[in-house]
């Protein structure tokens, strides 16, 4: 279903059309940005009950969601542009979904303007979080924007991509989303943020697993290139197992469903891992990429439901 949708969307794309910009924004990747915010908000809502309903701000929650979405789109635009500029997006050898700049769906100058616009929009949207979380939110915002650029232009080439996923799709969004609500964070929140980072990192692992030969050729030393095929396959599986077992901290804090429900995620994660190992290489691994995106969304929903249901 995911693959058929992508093929339909990629047919007869008019330059700078709405369809072209939708494809450039990569809507399926937005789940990776929303999951940590969803988990952070669920934990904050649960703990806010101890202080009364006034302790939870829906305005701050909405701002966090919108900021996460815009930053993810910004990151996708930046990745699209700089990979094209570096010559890494060869339409003939590319195994992943087609990219807007390489295919000519979006003009290069238009993409530059889009990057500037989305970066400014993220800063404007995120600025009110200073009111809820204090001046330290400015530093967090600067770090998000800075590493959004550094990831594609430099850090992903030296094997730092997985670490950045842990930090910017796990620790920072979960902890900061919680912090702007209650002005603190707990060990439970921190462990949840690390588990979330591990789940989202599976998406990067399967993406880099598919591209390992091209990345090696281009001198892009991802973690998969450094570890090799077999170790990367076991790393993918281990990330999902770790994320679920780390949820025992929810049980320790009285949220047993927060620990038990994610085992549903683990079951489908294992199935995707088996398919990944069986396919092993080529464009067909995009099926596993789509399934991993689906799986991590399911994980986020299950954890949130488990935490909210007391």
Quote the distance from N terminus to C terminus.
35 Å
The succession of helices and strands, N to C, reads HHHHHHHHHHHHHHHHH
Mean pLDDT: 88
User: Would you count the extended β strands for me?
Assistant: 0
| Uncertain stretches of 5 or more adjacent residues | 1-10
As a percent range, the share of helical residues equals over 70%
Structural class: mainly alpha
The biggest beta sheet is recorded as:
none
Residue share in β-strands: under 5%
Shape: globular
Specify Rg, calculated over alpha carbons: 19 Å
Q: Tally the helices: what do you get?
A: 17
Question: Layout of SSEs?
Answer:
Elements: H1 2-10, H2 18-25, H3 30-48, H4 58-85, H5 100-103, H6 108-126, H7 129-133, H8 136-153, H9 161-182, H10 187-210, H11 212-218, H12 223-227, H13 229-246, H14 248-252, H15 256-260, H16 262-279, H17 286-308
What does this protein structure show overall?
It is a single chain. By secondary structure, this protein is mainly alpha-helical. The chain is built from 17 helices and no strands. It has helices spanning 2-10, 18-25, 30-48, 58-85, 100-103, 108-126, 129-133, 136-153, 161-182, 187-210, 212-218, 223-227, 229-246, 248-252, 256-260, 262-279, 286-308. α3 packs parallel to α9 (161-182), α3 runs antiparallel to α10 and α10 packs antiparallel against α17.
């Amino acid at each position: 279903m995911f693959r058929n949708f992508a093929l339909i969307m990629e047919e007869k794309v008019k330059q700078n059309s709405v369809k072209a910009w939708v494809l450039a924004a990569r809507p399926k990747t937005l789940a990776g940005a929303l999951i940590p915010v969803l988990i952070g908000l669920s934990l904050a809502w649960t703990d806010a009950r101890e202080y009364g309903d006034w302790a939870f701000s829906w305005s701050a929650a909405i701002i966090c969601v919108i900021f996460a979405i815009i930053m993810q789109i910004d990151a996708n635009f930046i990745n699209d542009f700089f990979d094209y500029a570096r010559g890494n997006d060869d339409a003939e050898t590319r195994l992943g979904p087609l990219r807007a700049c390489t295919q000519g769906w979006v003009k290069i100058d238009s993409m530059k303007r889009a990057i500037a616009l989305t970066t400014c929009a993220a800063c404007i949207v995120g600025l009110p979080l200073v009111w809820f979380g204090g001046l330290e939110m400015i530093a967090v915002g600067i770090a998000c924007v800075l590493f959004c650029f550094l990831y594609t232009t430099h850090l992903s080439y030296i094997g730092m991509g997985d670490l950045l996923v842990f930090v910017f799709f796990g620790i920072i969004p979960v902890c900061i989303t919680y912090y702007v609500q209650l002005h603190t964070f707990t060990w439970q929140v921190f462990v949840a943020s690390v588990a979330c980072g591990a789940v989202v990192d599976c998406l990067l692992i399967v993406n880099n697993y598919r591209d390992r030969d091209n990345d090696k050729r281009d001198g892009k030393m991802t973690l998969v290139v450094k570890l090799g095929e077999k170790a990367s396959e076991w790393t993918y599986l281990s990330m999902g197992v770790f994320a679920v077992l780390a949820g025992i901290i929810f049980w320790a804090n009285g949220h047993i469903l927060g620990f038990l429900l994610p085992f549903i995620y683990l079951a489908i994660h294992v199935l995707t891992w088996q398919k990944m190992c069986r396919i092993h290489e080529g464009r067909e691994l995009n099926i596993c990429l789509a399934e991993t995106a689906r799986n991590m969304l399911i994980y986020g929903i299950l954890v949130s439901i488990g935490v909210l249901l007391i």
